[in-house]
Design goal:
With 203 residues, this protein is mostly helical. The chain contains five helices and no strands. It is elongated. The chain starts with 21 loop residues before the first helix and ends in an 8-residue tail after the last helix.
Length: 203
């Protein structure tokens, strides 16, 4: 008498636990490579400012009217992104969605203000080496912000559909750590282009 053997495959793995795995390692490598690009740009600024003639920076006191509140807004968005991640960890869907929505809104406002500030500059990317470095660095950062906004929007949609939980968390963790990276880089860019001239560097 023939016997029928029914194969019961094991349940699919949920994925890495505690936010670690191939995806996490890939994000760390991406952030490290992008950080080096920003490091080279900032090094160029400090090198040219140190060896350049007096008055290399167009203004000894960059206007902080827009840039300072914009910086504080972007830094605050890291808090809301972290809060959203905690919402996923604790399976509080409303908290996660609210945090992601507020983070996206803050990032969008930062982007809009940065564009307005570009238009108010009395120098352009072709006016001097300082102008070239300023616009290249801030535009490069802006590109990362736009990518970050796309990631936050995708996470919002997937969270709304219930794709994540306290064990299926690594995409959220990766997205949030990328957003933290974008914020940390802007802090370095802000300190370099807006604060060091006020301290006398390159003026």
């Amino acid at each position: 008498m023939a016997e029928t053997i029914v194969a019961r495959p094991k349940a699919l793995q949920i994925g890495p636990v505690e936010g670690r795995g191939i995806g996490w390692n890939g994000m760390v490598c991406l952030i490290a490579s992008e950080a080096m690009l920003f490091a080279f740009l900032l090094f160029s600024y400090y090198y040219l400012g140190a060896v350049g003639q007096r008055g290399w920076v167009p203004s000894s006191a960059p206007d902080l009217t827009l840039s300072l509140p914009d910086t504080l807004l972007l830094l605050a968005s890291s808090v809301t992104a972290w809060w959203a991640e905690q919402g996923v960890r604790k399976e509080r869907k409303g908290q996660a969605l609210a945090g992601l929505a507020v983070t996206f809104a803050m990032g969008a406002v930062f982007t809009a203000v940065q564009v307005v500030e570009w238009g108010e500059k009395h120098f352009g990317p072709g006016s001097s080496s300082f102008g070239a470095l300023y616009f290249v660095t801030t535009a490069f950062h802006m590109a990362h912000v736009v990518v970050g906004l796309a990631i936050i929007a995708a996470l919002f949609g997937w969270t709304a559909r219930g794709y994540f939980s306290h064990v299926r968390l690594i995409p959220v963790s990766n997205g949030v750590i990328y957003w933290h990276f974008v914020d940390a880089v802007w802090l370095a860019v802000f300190a370099t282009y807006y604060l060091t001239p006020r301290l006398g560097f390159g003026t």
